[in-house]
Please model this.
Amino acid sequence: MAVYRFRVTFEDNEEVYREIEIKSTQNFEDFHNCIVQSIGFDNQNDASFYTSDDLWRKGDEIGLRPLSEDEVEKLKRRDLPVKKQMNKCKLASMIDDPHQKFVYVYDPKTAWTFMVELVKILLDDPKGTFPKVTKSAGESPKQHINTAVAPPLDDEDFDDDEPHHDDDAYANAHSEDETALLESEEGEEEETEEESQDEEMNDDDAHEENAGDED
Model:
């Protein structure tokens, strides 16, 4: 019986990794639980290991969630491989290379991806407790990212007493002096219109008087 030392590296940052030792007779579910705990994830989602070549191309899947009988039948009818289950698959059964590689994916929706590589094979330690984290480097990614959302504005945030003018000139007036000037200009325009009307009325009266004198 041997002990495997794996290096688990975060896909987007090689400086973030964990080294984990696990017995060859332990299963992939034990390995999964140790990885999740070491990176601080909640272990509430599905996950899978995939056998991999040196280019990190995925091969056979070893899944956490067991397949139903219907799912197994569908895969068989389509001549597709039925994935192994973590709790029934021992690590030794999937190690074909002294530098065996796996791709570990946590939560299919977000697809957190980690590269898993066998870096050393050790003799069994009867007194040791496995699996265990023997080295931790870098801060693991945050599983849940909190995004601050600005609260909606209420009607109370607006002052109903503020004047509302359709005139562009009022919209551009930024001081009391400018507003007063605009109002005085409007007042002069109104007075001018009234004077014009008075003059027209006087002209009409004069015209009527002249017409009466001619008669």
